Each structure stands twice: as C-alpha cells, then as structure tokens.
Amino acid sequence: MRFTPDTLATLTDPRTVISGDLVRIPFELDRNVYEQVDRALKEMGGRWDGRKAVRAHVFPHRIEEYLRQCLAAGEFSSRYDTGWFPTPPALAVQVCDLAGIRPGDAVLEPSAGSGALTAEIARRGGVIDAVESDEFRADMLRQQGDCRRVFAADFLKLDPLEYEEGFDRVVMNPPFTGGLDHILHAIQFMKDDGVLVSIMTAGLMWWSDKKTEEFRDAVEEVGGEIEPLPDDSFAVCGTNVRTCLLFLPGYAGGPLRTHDWLMRQPRQLDLFAA
Ligand SMILES: C[S@@+](CC[C@H](N)C(=O)[O-])C[C@H]1O[C@@H](n2cnc3c(N)ncnc32)[C@H](O)[C@@H]1O
Q: For 100-119, how does the pLDDT look when each residue is reduced to its tens digit (9 = 90+)?
C-alpha cells in the first residue's frame, strides 16, 4: 500500500524519531495529516501509546530497518495487502550465504521487490537479472543500480528458453501466495550445477496436495533441504507468517527440469530442419 504524500513527508521529516520499536512525531500536524499518518502506522501494526513518557506509536517488534525500506519504496505492507514482504537484512545475508554466491555468478532474483536480496547479492559480486511485476518497484530497482537487467514483468510468463544460458544461482523470496509455482518456474532458469535458495511459506513443509508432495520428494532425491525459519522471521514486516528456507543444490538428470534439461530437449523446429 502506498503512503500518501503527506504521510511520507511526515515520516521522512528529520524531526520524526524512528527508533527501535517506536515512531514519535514531536511536532504539530494538521488533523487531516495526523489521521493519515495514524492510519498508516496502525495498518503496519503499531498502536498509539498516549502516556506522557511515551507519546508515540509503538510496535510489537523493531520497526526501524523495515520502515527505512518502506520509506525508500514509498509503500508498506498492510494487513490488506499481502504481496510485498521485504526480506529483513539478516535473513538476506543468511540466504546469500546458503546460496554461496561467488563474484561473477549470474544470479536470478525473479520477484525482486524493492531490492532487499539484490543489494546483498550485488555486495558479493553477483551479476543480477531481476524480475518484478510491480512497475513502481521495478523502477526502484533500476535506480538502485545493483542489477545488470531489471524486467518489469510477470515472472511466470517469462520463457526460460529466451535465455541461451541458465543462471549459476537463483535467490528468491516469492509472493507467499502461489510461491511453489514461482519456485518450479525458477528451476527452469537454473543451470544443472546451479543452486536455488528460496524463502517460502512454511506450508511447503507439510501441505499434502500432490504437487507439493511430489516437489518435496524431488527435493529429497536431489539432496536438497527444506528447513523451518524462526517464527518471527518476518515480524519486522508486521506479519507472523511462518516461513521456511529451501535449498536446492545442482544436479543433472533429476526429476526437476533445469534450464540445461530444457536445452537438451529436441526443439520442435529442429525436427523439420533439413
Ligand atoms: C514477498 S515480496 C519479496 C520481495 C523481495 N524478493 C525480497 O526478498 O525483499 C514478493 C514480491 O514479488 C512480487 N511479485 C508478485 N507476483 C509476481 C510475479 N508474478 N512476477 C514477478 N514478481 C512478482 C511482488 O510485487 C513483491 O514485490
């Protein structure tokens, strides 16, 4: 959800204190502006504490880093908008450590949001292609300058065969709804000896539908792992959604179709070539 211009101006005012778990505005606001700011902070999970010693919106968790990302992006995840949950910095480091990104690796971030993961990948020297369906966030990614290319597109509609080569690493935190479809599609962009690491809703560990069960079997077969993340991993984003971390190592000829697997298949047109 986008901040209104007045809310953004108030929260980025140098006099506004954003520290630890609270946001304090120590100056007078028009009633109408106050209501906009109050609404946004409450939608993010804050509550007004009017006690004389506090007089601030207080959150049940640290808000500082997350709010910094929100203000840079001009938007926040509210209770009504569940699409954008930026990966907290410590988790971004953990994900990139697990992926083992090396300088020069071609890395795909297929739902890049406002760049929480791309910033960490770039810091390690990865050469990044990012995809983000939201035009506003895609523009932000371009301005950050961490990526070789940014596509403002629906990742699920991108054709892996448009790429001549697969990626060394795929690092992702896809939307929590439909995340497995994003992961299955992303595998088709990965080299046989690539690595994919994804944050995913914890349901991946126990959902009993056929697609998820087959996926878990395939992960096990190729020596991958799905580990639960701590319950409060996304608490700083105001959500208690439980998450897990998928690690998929390189493999050849396994049950999951990589980019190399697709490239090995005879192309329809080749069948008719002289
Ligand atoms: C959970 S957020 C994570 C953002 C980023 N990966 C991170 O770790 O901070 C998911 C992002 O996926 C984007 N998204 C949702 N559906 C998409 C799609 N079909 N193609 C590309 N991006 C998509 C959303 O706009 C949102 O920014």
A: 999 999 999 999 998 999 99
